[in-house]
Amino acid sequence: MERPILRLKNASIYQGDSLVLSNVNVEINKGDFVYLIGKTGTGKSSFMKTLYGDLPLQEGEGDIVDFNLKTLKESEIPYLRRKLGVVFQDFKLLTDRTVNDNLFFVLKATGWTDKEKMNARIEEVLDKVDMKTKGFKFPHELSGGEQQRIAIARALLNNPELILADEPTGNLDPQTSVEVMEVLQEINKNGNTILMATHDYALLLKYPSKTLKCDENKVYEVVQRKN
Q1: Label partner for 216 (CA 20 to 30 A): which of 23, 40, 96, 206?
Q2: Which residues are CB-contacts of 77 (< 8 A; sequence separation ≥ 6)?
Q3: Domain ABC transporter: where (predicted)?
């Protein structure tokens, strides 16, 4: 039996001194596509931040991609993030450099040195998100949907074991949201595990999958009704 990629047991999630979520029990296995839903302010972002080491796990147990969140040291956070791909709502692309240079920057920062391999990897991930011809462009020359595709490509660079997508369609119109979702679905079909925080319920209906809900300081699985 494979170990889960993410496991939280009786975990409490804090933002500073405020308890945001208590008694969280969650397991995500390799290849899963899981939604995290809930109204604004119910703890979705705090949940995500705890997973990539932005907030410390103060109570309970937590393992993610073979890292123990409870004992995670500051010095280990960069290594944890290399095994995760994180996609944000606001893209977080470097505006002063091209798409290729954005991706090159990440590879360099995560220890790649062979230029030929770096270029090949960049081409590979851009191909996966259907943006192979856009590498020479600057972020401001791309639409919101295209920028989010680049952000997804960036998340894929180091073959992450888990992709955390925090409201990846939050700034996009409905049609573009569907296009970005198609990219994520395709990546998931290729074996990548994805946890996606969203408040876009239309996507949940169109692409039903395991769903966790944050509500009243708790996280629980929502059983989706079959039509």
Answers
A1: 206
A2: 52, 53
A3: 6-225
